[in-house]
Amino acid sequence: MQGEIRRSYLWLPVCLLFFAVAVMAGLKYGSVALSASELLDILLHPQDAGLQSTVVWQLRLPRVALAALVGMALAVSGTVFQAVLRNPLADPYLLGVSGGAALGAVLALTFFSIQSYAVPVLAFSGALLSLLLVYLVARAHQAATHTLILAGVMVGSLCTAILMFLLLYSPSDPMRSALFWLAGNLSRTEAGWLPYAATVCTGVVLLLWARASLLDVFTQGEDVAADLGVDIGRERLLLLAGGGLLVAIAVALAGLVGFVGLVVPHAARLLWGAGHARLVPAAAIAGAGFLVAADVLARTLLAPAEVPVGVITALIGAPFFLYLLRLRGR
Amino acid sequence: MYTARHLSTIVLLACMICVWVPGMNTFGGCATYTDALERKVELDEVPQRVVSLVPSVTETIYALGAQAQLVGVTDFCTYPSAAQSKSSVGAYNSPSIEAIALLEPDLVIIAADMATPALLDTLLKLDIPVYTVYPRSIAATIAMLRNLGLLLGHAEEGETLAHQLERRVSQLRTEVGQEQSSTAPRVMISIMVEPLVIAGTDTLPGELLASAGGVNVAQKGSRYPMWNMETVLAQDPDIIIVSPHPGTSAPEDFFLRFSRLRAVQRGMVIPIHADWLQRPGPRVLKGLNALRDAILNAKSNIEEQGNAGRN
Asked: Is B227 in Cβ contact with A305 (below 8 Å)?
């Protein structure tokens, strides 16, 4: 069975099956019980105004869509970051993006209400600004890998320090909202934003996919890339900007959801190899399915309360990844 | 000689009374009070330099008219607004010990739940008397109003505040007792919306709700359970109470998106000032009345619709 799944030509059906199962589970499970036939009925009759229909159309469907989008964005940007920085520990938040986004969000929560648009807008701006800062610092060094990582970590630390300072001086309720938001939160669905975010994300993912061969070259090492006549600095920045844009959108939509961007690309690589022509789409679909599945657990484990989805992604992601590591050794 | 012995007997007696009788005892200058941690707090005279680390206590001190004796508050003591002009000793949960000591208080009032033993010990080591409060119920709030009045030499005002609340509670008990329990509206009190936190039965807002004749939809779980929106839709309460506060000025918007909710259809998503329901002080009376109004509204609303259905 393990061997079967790892056959390289099977990557697409396996990923799609996983995604489809996760989406169906996301629509079926929740506090309001629903049988499979009822779900089918509701999906076929969207005009129905019953409780179950409201729950599926107004709560679960936007949430599944959001989880899929965020999961895809994080997994693809993780893939890109790991390839370009040639660092297996690279995750989408490495370049200070998480710190900048968190700072933006907490600023928004301190000065505006959590219900306003300020939270995603400022989180997005914070993420982009910290990326820009990292870029400006690293550009002076032809964007060498270690400079990028160090600059990213420093910008992140700076943002975290300012954030702690702000949190100390904000009253307890906004602070609780902020912490809840920072832990990764798929429950606030601004349904109107989803189509735009989805369009941009899909576009960026396709662009990155189109550069799959370039990502392969980067994985081989910078010398190889230079020998092949690639303008390393420029290409690296372009790829990182694409990945950074994906993270910024994901953070603005759902806060800081950890682990997806780290574990999904590695898992896909372990299963179906490092070729990016296959890896980028595999990570995109598997990442979407993974976050949808994690969110189902987050919603149902302690219902009617919700576990922050970041806890679940780490809780199932880490053991699964360890299992895959062991599998590879055989 | 005789007089001296006589005097010493009186002093001895006085001290014995102070020690033996629980609660407050005064004899001459010496007074002993029992606080929320069952500690004995001895005060030689009525405190004139009080630091309050509890927003509800600050509010109560103003309601007692004892604000001249108040020298320090926390950043979170926002009501009444005059309190913000007093010296601040920092945040509610992390006050600055140095700022407290600089005010040379003769009494510091802290909450028993936030009073990490460390804070209490530090203050006691500095020879600063500490009185703890821990009002988590209506009865405890009434007792606190009374005790703070006694403690600060405003016994009469404290008695008045306590009695007002007591009388309203017993009035409502009679009123609610005569109503059919089957017609009691099902109420959800949302403390905050993101995350969606609900007041359970064993909380001050929950107790106020029960006194006002409402049935809490959050019967199970922790004191302040977290709910998801699906549960709210499934429970479909008659009334949703939301608590606006500076961080969230219009929490009702969160629920108005769901036109399916009974409370939304009937205009029964009602904001009540967070302090009125959650701060155990004199304004709890306002919260109680606001809840009662909402419940009476919902009842007549339900009856009207019932009549309309019959006609």
From this structure: yes
For residue A172, the chain B residues in CB contact (below 8 A) are 76, 92-93
Give domain status of residue B64, yes or no.
Answer: yes
Please answer yes or no on whether B195 and A180 come within 8 Å at the CB atom. yes
Do B236 and B270 lie in a common domain?
yes
Distances (CA, A) of B14 to B6, B273, B279: 12, 46, 37
Nearest CB partner across the interface for B234, out of A31, A115, A177: A31
- A51 CA: distance to closest CA in chain B (Å): 7
Out of A31, A174, A177, the one facing B228 most closely (by C-beta) is: A31
Question: Do B68 and B90 touch, CB atoms closer than 8 A?
Answer: no
- Are A299 and B245 inside 8 Å of each other by CB? no
pLDDT digits (tens, 9 = 90+) for B202-258: 999 999 999 999 999 998 878 888 888 888 998 999 999 998 876 677 788 889 888
What whole-number distance in Å separates Cα of residue A179 and Cα of residue B197?
14
Q: Which pLDDT tens digit goes with each residue over B24-42?
A: 444 445 688 888 888 888 8
Between chains, do A305 and B225 touch, taking CB under 8 Å as contact? yes
Q: What are phi and psi of B198, to 5 degrees?
A: -115, 145
| β-strands B87-88, B70-73 pairing | parallel
The 3-state DSSP class for residue B87 equals: strand
Residue of chain A nearest B236, judged by CA positions:
A51
CATH number, residue B257: 3.40.50.1980
Is the same domain home to B232 and B303? yes
B56 lies in the same domain as B100? yes
CATH number, domain containing residue A308: 1.10.3470.10
As for the ipTM of the complex, it is 0.75
Judged by average pLDDT, the poorest of A111-125, B4-18, B172-186 is B4-18
Q: Which residues of B touch A109 (CB under 8 A)?
A: 247
Q: Which domain holds residue A90?
A: 2-329
pLDDT in tens, A117-138: 777 788 888 888 888 888 788 7
Q: Residues A222, A226, A228, A229: is their CA dihedral positive or negative?
A: positive
What is the total count of domains within chain B? 2
- Return the higher-pLDDT residue of B105 and A88: B105
B77 with B194, same domain: the answer is: no
Residues B150 and B191 both lie in one domain? no
Q: How many domains does the structure of chain A reveal?
A: 1
Taking residues B59-77, what's their average pLDDT? 92
Choose the most confident range, by mean pLDDT, from A207-221, B146-160, B175-189, B291-305: B146-160
Say if residue B89 is in the same domain as residue B156. yes
Q: What average pLDDT does range A54-70 have in this prediction?
A: 90
Nearest CA in chain A to B194: A177
Provide the residue range defining the domain that includes B255.
183-310
Span A261-299, pLDDT tens digits: 988 998 898 888 888 889 999 999 999 999 999 999 988
For chain B, the distance separating the N- and C-terminal CA atoms, rounded to the nearest angstrom, is: 93
CB contact under 8 A, B194 and A181: yes
